[in-house]
Amino acid sequence: MQNIGAANADDAFYRYKMPKLQAKIEGRGNGIKTNIVNNVEIAKALERPPEYVLKYYGCELGAQTNFDKHSGTSIVNGAHDTRKLSELLEAFIKKYVCCYSCSNPETQIKLKKECIYLKCKACGFVSDIDPRHKLNTFILKNPPENKLKKEEQKLKKAEEERVKDAEALGEKEKKKDKKDKKDKKDKKKSKKDDGDDGNVEDNASKDEDASSSDDANDGVVWMTDTSAEAAKRRAHEQLTAATAALVTLGNMEAEQEAARRKLEREAKRAAEEEARKKDDEAKRAAEEAAEKLAAEAQAAALSSADPVVRLRSLLADKDAPTIVKELKSMTVEGGMAGKMRILYEAALGASDTKMDSVLKARKNIFAQFAQDAQNQLAQLIAMEHLFAVALPGRIKEAPYVLKMLYELDLIEEDVVLAWARKADAGRILSVPADGSRAVRKAVAQVVEWLQQQEDDDEEED
């Protein structure tokens, strides 16, 4: 056994104790789970339902839990060591067991609408539980059964019976007093009627004295009763009134103190919330300023960067019309062929993805520069520069790119044949002669295939 609460761990005379947590890991692979062997005994020592303790583990660990009410088996999915579970148990005790004022674990969970609070049996303090924890939802859906102990039930039942007997005795005494008074009056009246005229005045005066005496003592006749039963009833009524006054006064003081502390907590919470909001606003403003500066720096870098780098950045997050507009507005060496060089290097040379696949995906951009033979020839010269100068290591992809240009109707076959025959077409972009020959050699089969198609068309005509 160990003391409840880490603050009391070294107190040898502490009277609130609980069993030491025992956990056992079962299963393996995806079915691994942790069995908390003595969860029911721990919950009983804390006077809390075992489901609350188990659910708290699940909320903190982000794991599913399972509790069998018949066998008391408590399961948490996943492998969790005893040290971690003991730390979570200590946090549960601090939040949901110990009084926030005197740290005594002798508290009861009370619910009021959507609020949960702890009522301390020792000092009477009412502790508000933080409503943001996930366990609160489970507690509201599964409220605790606040059962009285056997001794408390017996005392309550005895008190109810005692009050009931006292009320019945009071009614009986009251009826008896009324009956005695009535009999006494009737007796005096009969004597008055039987007496002579001389005794009328005496009897009348006596009757008046008796009547006034009865009236004066009406309602307090029982005070003259010296029997043991009457004395017992008087003592009970006096004791009940005094006790009720003391209890009422004590409750009022406790309620006033609880209300004062609640107001202090609410004011503190409001101040913390206001400070948190200000911190969040300052943080948000700083982040927005940093993002703005980063965007401005990026824009400045792009404006001064290489045209290929700038266009590659636009390809990453802008639409086709914006990219086409930017490309057309550029002023570069080589005219349209120079602009196509930038497009081909930025789009096809940006990654290791097959160039013909990228070309097919970006067709809507390339199609904006394929309306006439001049633009088509500019694209072929840009392709020649790409494989001869920019990326000579990927020259094996040249025939696939040329074939994809033809299949996507971006290049006419007569333009391809004209480009193939003009060996110095790439001179406008400073393509070396050996590079031009290497590119034409790589696409020779595609050129021959297009030449064959053109010859077949002429024969048919």
From TrEMBL:
It holds the Pfam family W2. Residues 148-220, 257-289 are annotated as: Disordered. Signal peptide: none annotated. Residues 175-190 have a biased composition (Basic residues). GO terms for molecular function: eukaryotic initiation factor eIF2 binding; GDP-dissociation inhibitor activity; GTP binding; translation initiation factor activity. GO terms for cellular component: cytosol. Residues 148-174 have a biased composition (Basic and acidic residues). Residues 295-460 form the W2 domain. It comes from the Eukaryota. One of its GO terms (biological process) is formation of cytoplasmic translation initiation complex. Keywords: GTP-binding, Initiation factor, Nucleotide-binding, Protein biosynthesis. Gene3D superfamilies: 1.25.40.180, 2.20.25.350, 3.30.30.170. Belongs to the eIF-2-beta/eIF-5 family. Catalyzes the hydrolysis of GTP bound to the 40S ribosomal initiation complex (40S.mRNA.Met-tRNA[F].eIF-2.GTP) with the subsequent joining of a 60S ribosomal subunit resulting in the release of eIF-2 and the guanine nucleotide. The subsequent joining of a 60S ribosomal subunit results in the formation of a functional 80S initiation complex (80S.mRNA.Met-tRNA[F]). This is Eukaryotic translation initiation factor 5. The lineage of its organism: Eukaryota, Viridiplantae, Chlorophyta, core chlorophytes, Chlorophyceae.
